[in-house]
Every structure is written in C-alpha cells, then in structure tokens.
Amino acid sequence: MSYGDDKHNSYDDDKRKSYGDKKGDSYGNKKGDSYGDKKGDSYGQCSTGSQHCCNQVNRADESSKLDSLGLLGLSAIVDVIKSSNKLWGSDCSPFLGENTACSNKPICCQDNKMEGLVVIGCSNIDLDIL
C-alpha cells in the first residue's frame, strides 16, 4: 500500500519508506527537516513529546558536546542520549507554537531533564509552516 501524491512520496506498509518531494530534504517530508522523526506531524506540532526552544541542538554522535555534559556530572544523561541516537537540546524552554517567538532552535522532545537544561529524544520543528 502506498500513500502520497506521486512516485517520489510514498509510505509502504512493509517498512520501506521514501520521503522527500522537495530538493534539499534529507529524510524529512517537510522543507527544512533534517532528521524527520515526526511521522505524521503537521503544522509544527509534536506527535510525541513536547515542543522546546533550545539555545543549542546537537546530534547524539557529537562526542565533544556530550563530553561537556559528562564534566558537569551528568554521565547518566549522556548514556541515555547516546543510546537514543536522536537529537538533544540544551538550555531549553517550553515552545508553545504559533504565537510564541523562538529565535533559537525549536524541537520536539520526548524527555525533559533538569527543567530544560537538557532535553533528549528530539526532532526538528518546521517553522515555515506555522
């Protein structure tokens, strides 16, 4: 079974996925998505987790950023980030959508640690469609 309006945008029940009907997409189905873990998301809302505005957004494989968390005594959080293999943010605050300004990096995250100091299990939010 396939969903999508043309041969470049389909989702098959047998776990084969093909996203990206726009130039520049690298795994997301919306312009600007670079990690696209928000299956079924629309209009910048999170399908799981909550929206955050973060001063820094990093990949789980960026060891220099993770090392700084380890130096702060947050090695348990570092282990969770590494095992998630997703984005994580630091110095974050809640992001409430349309009428909220976020001049930094808005992301959807599944787990908030230490009142926004670190959020993990994240994916990008596309602000162009808000």
From TrEMBL:
GO terms for molecular function: structural constituent of cell wall. Residues 1-49 are annotated as: Disordered. Keywords: Cell wall, Disulfide bond, Secreted, Signal. Residues 1-41 have a biased composition (Basic and acidic residues). The keyword Signal applies. Belongs to the fungal hydrophobin family. This is Hydrophobin. It comes from Russula ochroleuca.
